[in-house]
Amino acid sequence: MATYNKRGYKPKTKVEKEHNIEEGSTTAEVFNTLDETASKTEDFVAKNQKYIFIIIGLVAVVVLGSLGYKEFISQPKQTEAMNDMFQAQKYFDEAVTGAAAQKDSLYSLALNGGEGKFGMLDIIEEYSGTPSANLASYYAGTAYLRLKDYENAVAYLGDFKSNDEILAPLAKGNIGDAFVQLNQPEDALGYYEEAFKMRDNEYTTPMYLFKAGSIAMDLGESDKALGYFKRIKEDYSNSTEAAKVDVFIGKAQVLANK
């Protein structure tokens, strides 16, 4: 237990004297070490202050440059890209909702532009690195899919990166659709599985579970298909796919038991 010595207290025994000497010596060593460390630090700063200021200056330039790029280059470029993309997106929307006879021409206009306005391919090239160019890759890939140019569909959809609840799985699923048309069912199955695993929602998840199950049956993976169909029935009973899934569950069970 620690004891408190009154002011003016003098050690009486030899042990106490030795203890005080040791304590004083240790304290002195600590202060000497601190003094030496501080002195070395001062010497280092004095000798290298030119380089230290250069490093600080470079860090400041990088930070300010990043902020300046975002404020004066990146954001204005994105705004310009959005404006130039407007007409191409309008063509795409009209192709989705319009009459069948006009769809191909409208998808072509969405890709290549019209009325002196940029198409999606122009946006990708002119505004590379912007969110608009990324989104244009999705539109371009989907337009190529609808135009039955499946290799370009895979290429452009593969360039699209997103965490969006709907667009992210749709892009993967569209690649799966393209691989079905290219007669590459194993690749198609892989992308359908990616599509339903990456996001869980009432629209894309049952749709790609159903497509994955159908391809799995064609590939002889009946147990896997049965699991996908049952998940639709159990977890997405209100979906469009659930209305017809019982038939496919029956088919998968028959094939699995063979």
Structure characterization notes:
By secondary structure, the chain is mainly alpha-helical. The chain has a domain at 55-161. Helices cover 78% and strands 0% of the residues. It is elongated, with a radius of gyration of 35 Å. The longest helix has 84 residues, at 14-97.
Write a short abstract of this structure.
With 258 residues, the chain is mainly alpha-helical. 78% of the residues lie in helices and 0% in strands.
Would you count the extended β strands for me? 0
Estimated share of beta-strand residues: under 5%
Describe the main β-sheet briefly: none
Q: Figure out the total of helices.
A: 10
Q: Tell the overall outline.
A: elongated
Mean pLDDT: 81
The radius of gyration is 35 Å
Percent helix range: over 70%
Q: What is the helix/strand order?
A: HHHHHHHHHH
Low-confidence stretches: 1-24, 61-73
Query: Roughly how many Å apart are the termini?
Result: 83 Å
Which structural category fits the helices and strands?
Answer: mainly alpha
How would you describe this structure in keywords?
mainly alpha, 10 helices
Helix and strand topology:
Layout lengths: L13 H84 L2 H13 L7 H7 L4 H16 L3 H10 L7 H15 L3 H14 L5 H15 L3 H14 L9 H12 L2
